[in-house]
Design goal:
Layout lengths: L1 H8 L1 H25 L4 E10 L18 H14 L2 H10 L3 E11 L6 E12 L2 H25 L9 E6 L5 E2 L1 H50 L25 H14 L19 H14 L1
Antiparallel strand pairs: 1-3, 1-4, 1-5, 2-3
Helix pairs in contact: 2-6, 7-8
Length: 298
């Protein structure tokens, strides 16, 4: 909520930040797509067939005996071809390979897709010719590994299942996703870098602004100290209280003296005319009792 509030309060700054991130992301994506190495892909398929080839009996034809048993053998071979030692051998022969898969193909013509005895090899690499050569080598290696698995299990040579090439290695095709992936990764990296720069810039700006504000406050405090923090209103001292004049004499005292002068001369009280007396504004509160006392004296 605080971010939304700040964005609404500083709309111009928010728009500039968004535009900056868009520009940085676009530039990063273009640079990443330009520097990305093209990735090539090649495929090949082998078929696992049961024993019986060369037998004159038609029922021994291996291509008419493809069943779920052969599918299980193909899955076992795919697991063996994905072993770490096989993958390491591939990378040693072709360092340009970036991805490799060996998976059983499924029959998509039925309602519930079922595995077949077809084993597909997919190789991706930055070198087109090396990618195709690796697929061909994998087909040969698959036949060798299939024979080794069966021999290790005690199967006789005449009853071994065989792996035949069903689809030759295809011509390497450029993967369009490779350039898009590189551009996307570069754009994301550029946006993150832009966010870091914005955060650092805002932090520096707030620090500099805070230091400037402290300097201004210090200047104002120094000017106040020269006056000892006291304020004297116009026309009087800071300690001036109502009912006191500047000479420090109370107006009530002066009124008392005046009363004494009036009442002290008893011989002339009846012949003298009452004197007009008006209290000052500043001492109105203290002169009220004095006026009342003088009236009683008269």
């Amino acid at each position: 909520m605080r971010i939304l509030t700040l964005a609404r309060r500083h709309r111009v700054v928010t728009a500039l930040i968004v535009m900056f991130l868009l520009v940085v992301g676009t530039v990063g994506g273009v640079i990443g797509a330009g520097r990305a190495e093209p990735t090539y892909q090649s495929d090949g398929i082998v078929l696992i067939i049961p024993p019986g080839a060369g037998n004159p009996s038609a029922t021994m034809n291996p291509f008419v005996n493809l069943d779920q048993n052969m599918s299980q053998l193909a899955q076992a071979l795919s697991t063996r071809m994905a072993a770490p030692d096989v993958v390491e051998r591939i990378h040693q022969q072709a360092p340009s390979v970036v991805n490799y898969q060996a998976q059983v193909r499924y029959d998509q013509s039925v309602v519930n897709p079922a595995p077949t005895s077809q084993l597909q090899f997919t190789v991706q690499g930055t070198d087109a010719q090396a990618t195709r050569d690796v697929v061909a080598q994998l087909m040969v290696l698959a036949d060798e590994e299939l024979s080794r698995i069966q021999t290790h299990a005690g199967v006789t040579q005449s009853t071994l299942a065989d792996a035949v090439v069903l689809v030759q290695p295809t011509e390497p095709q450029v993967m369009p996703v490779s350039s898009l992936r590189a551009a996307g990764m570069a754009a994301v990296a550029a946006v993150l870098l832009g966010l870091v720069l914005i955060v650092v810039g805002l932090g520096v700006w707030r620090f500099v602004r805070g230091r400037h504000g402290e300097t201004m406050v210090g200047t104002v405090d120094d000017s106040d100290d020269t006056d000892n923090g006291k304020y004297e209103p116009p026309g009087g001292s800071a300690n001036h209280e109502p009912g006191h004049d500047d000479s420090g004499t109370s107006s009530s005292d002066s009124d008392g003296a005046q009363n004494d002068s009036v009442t002290g001369d008893g011989a002339t009280d009846e012949t003298r005319e009452p004197q007009t007396w008006a209290p000052s504004t500043a001492s109105a509160r203290h002169t009220a009792p004095a006026t009342e006392a003088r009236g009683s004296a008269w």
